[in-house]
Amino acid sequence: MYLLLEFQSSVDRFMALRIMVYTGLLHQDLIRRGELGADRKLPSVLPVVLYNGERRWRAPTDVRALVQPPPDGLERFQPDQAFLLIDEGAYSADDRQPINNLVAALFRLEHHRSSDEVAGLLHLLVKWLSGPEQAGLRRAYLEWLRRRLPKWFPGETFPEMHDLQEAYEMITNRFEEWKERQRLVGVRQGVEQGIEQGRLDGERALVLRLIQRRFGEVPPSVHKRLQSARQHQLETWADRVLDADSLDDIFG
User: How many domains would you assign to the chain?
Assistant: First the structure.
């Protein structure tokens, strides 16, 4: 039995076709190298697509769904290949799914929704990987954390972490500080966005008033265009009002 692993961060409508090609290439390579075994039969292959994108996977998972229905009697001559899809986000978004193994914890960490959830999942990992026989997995998870933490908490600095327990303690001790800092950043961004939105609303109202003074009441389509316009568009339309003979001269 061969395990064929394909890692995807984006949805590919023709992923099933790619898997069929990969499987065929694997079998051809085994034939070429003379590794079919005593019975000279092709080995079984389990194709697995591990998908970690934000959107949920909606593409077909078998080739038959990609092929047009053939004339009656020709069904058995059509290609047919399926793959096992593991959609991390779909698993992580389902709160009913138990967190009872390392893979489930990894998926939830990858798609965590809060810093508290990260702390809880790391606590489980520290407990599950405490045995001496798990040393290799502890190192792998620690290295993965070193790579992921800067993306989860941009702008933060992290001290050197030598084991998973140390990483857990460092993260939990600094979580409150990070959460407060992120809250303040969010407040500041909200204020800045509010100021920007208020300024744009004022410019839209001014352009509308100029148009109404020149041409009278305007149709709903003009209101809609003004509501979706950005600053440079509003400035252009305001300049055109003075010389325009019609609304088309303004928005043309």
Answer: 1
